[in-house]
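FORM 7B: Structural annotation worksheet

SECTION A. Query
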Amino acid sequence: MLKLGLKCSSDPEQLYDRLRYKPDIIELHLQEDDLFKDKRKQLENTISMLLSLGYDVYLHHPIKYNGRYLNIIHEQKEDYLFYHLSTRILAEICLTHSIKCVIHPHYLPTATSAINNENNENNENNEKMANEIKQILTYGKDVFLWENSIHGLFTAENTNWFEEIVKPLHLPLAYDISHAFISFKGDNSLLLEQIKKLASYIHYLHVVDSEGQKHDGLQLGTGLIQWEPILPFLMNRPYIYEITLKDKTNAVEMYESHLYLVRLSKNHSCTN
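SECTION B. Predicted structure
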């Protein structure tokens, strides 16, 4: 059965809007200050409230610190320290409330997380990233869901991504379908092939359409992803619709994406 998963910040206006749709899942996309002092108390109160009302709750690690995109292999010590501090705090919160947190090893590839034509350098960077992930796992092994980016080591661009990082560490994945589609330059057959390959590692998904050229965050049915073959992988896994909204306080594009999948699944059932 398809679930309705919606994303929002911890801002009350966004949250109340999402609850209007009676979703199954809420993913709270966090900012750096959500993890400290009164903001942390507010976050934990929100989590408790949502859980008490029967919603499944997922957190999303902050994507930036001081305006810079985070990377598990940091070139600035300040960012490195924040990455570790924030993941320690998130592990505490997740363990307290029995929930999980989506995390990116990187967003934009830096020198140490970019794909290089020299295989030896790639292998060294894969090993470096794997070692950094191992450290994060000591804070809370079962609470983090690792999300693929578009470009760099922890993406479909890296041919050894699965064999050298994901598989040895048994990493549960938050698989972003559009990120992978863009990594594959809009190739639906490669996308489906990888979803099948990683199926046992995919614990959670971000469902969003794309034209396959850049990060565009499209409503389902308006991009080039072929959704019907992917439907079986969504039926028994949690996911959210991560659509770029015209108005962050109105999740209508996410909800219409859900209705698109529901119609598609009904048509699929009728033809089988």
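SECTION C. Observations
The chain has one domain: 5-271. The longest strand covers residues 202-207.

SECTION D. Sign-off
Analyst initials: ____
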